[in-house]
Amino acid sequence: MLQAAKIVLSPLLLWQGRSVRRRALRLPEAQGARVGVAGTGPVCLRLLIVGDSSAAGVGAATQSQALAGRLSEALSQRLDGAVAWQLVAQTGHTTRDAVDVLKTASLHPADVMVTALGVNDVVAQVSTKKWLSNLDKLDWLAARRAGVQHIVHSGVPPMHAFPLLPHPLRWVLGAQARHYNEALVRWVAAYPNRWTLPLPFEDQLATAGTLMAEDGFHPGPAIYALWAEQLAGKISAEIAPVLPLTTPTRRKDR
Fold this sequence. Notes:
Elements: H1 2-23, E1 35-38, E2 43-51, H2 53-56, H3 67-79, E3 82-89, H4 95-104, E4 112-116, H5 119-123, H6 128-146, E5 150-154, H7 169-188, E6 194-197, H8 202-207, H9 221-239
Parallel strand pairs: 2-3, 2-4, 4-5, 5-6
Antiparallel strand pairs: 1-3
């Protein structure tokens, strides 16, 4: 049904897409360092965050208000130790772009990788199969080059609720985002070290679009905080306990 709708609506969708690009407010990425340590004491977790503009913090003024800062702080509190983190992200990146960057980026050792990718793949009409293939390449590179042991792939956000997008473009992109997420859940289920997290703010967007950034397309600081808390809960409860005792993540006195 979705494919048929895209064919029938293609002239209108192309026009709406060009119109959105022309009038969209261009917001900068969040200011601040892209590597750091949150909390005090011994390092108990090493975190790598890879993604697009949402990972880069567009919609927040500083990295402390964006995903990287919020997540590293939340994890340090939950794990009662320091969290060393690194951010590799850029506005406009598709998952394939992220793969290309990870091939040559200077990466710090990491136990866990969190990704924020998929919106630009949806916009570019990358097939679900190809998107998952590129995520697989990304996971392999992260393990090989940074020693990542577990990966949490954030789900694609609810694009059908983005205020910037007009209908029917909003409906079409939202439907494809849902297809991505359904496929992602099935895909990670086959791997013991891969996880997914549905983004937690669809209900909030439906009732309070002001949680979005002023461009109507990116998260605002409140959404970054919600997202980070959801990720920190999953990582601290489900992933940190199963990391080997020889890694900084698990201290023998716990």
